[in-house]
Design a protein that fits this description.
five-stranded parallel sheet, three-stranded antiparallel sheet, 11 helices
Length: 283
Amino acid sequence: MKKVQDILPEMNISKDMNPKSYEKPRILTKASDKCIFRICDGRGQIHQENKPGDDYMVICQCRKYKQQLRKIKSAGIPTDYTDKTMNDFKIDMYETDYSVRLAKYAKQAVTGYLDRYQEFEDMGKGFYFYSQTKGSGKSLLSMIIANELIKRYELNALYISVVNMLTELKNKMNQSNSKVGVYDLIESFKKADLLILDDLGVEKATEWSEEILTQILDDRMNYRRPTIITSNVSVEGLERKYPAGRIKSRIEKLTFPLRLPEESVRETLSKQDNEKMAQMLFN
């Protein structure tokens, strides 16, 4: 068997090759608890060195994480939901077999949507989550989608309840330069990469509110911008809620309907939290 020193010349490899050339760069930055990954000193940059005189800066993971977090917060997502992922949508929280089946189907659909988002984005498709029961998981799923897509694609998302959206528009109308303010606000709803309209159907439907919703949905439909909608009204019930008939047809084009269970997970979680607090207080 040939010795290593005999093989090296045949491979044109020098015995004197510096093994340090294969070493990882040396990190000069002192890790700090200010970096959530404990890699940099909290300023989002890592000072590295290949060899003396050959040093450079690289971006730390924590900077990208902070940028994503800012995008999530600027999307209007409530603080309690900014870190929610698919792991937080727990199927076993539902009690009846039928509810579990609905929840499992919804979770499978959302997971598939996230994995193939770019294809659905080209189609301009989102979801229509509906259930008459408050706290059934509709809003949670919609914000999980926003969180995941912001992290994966750094898109600009916007979350707002329909009631708050209409209230903001009315407030703008009462201000000076109201036309400019109202126009800019409506444009932000039209142009967002991903728009989440929460609790559609809770608002008092008027000719004006239906016209505003139609404008926004129509623009998003024409330009294929994905929209997520949650509601306590089924797709079929939209015609009764919005008699002009223009809302239902646009939502059918924009979204895939998913029924959520008629169980309040929020109520179950609140009871668990109170039981845990009682144990902490009296044990």
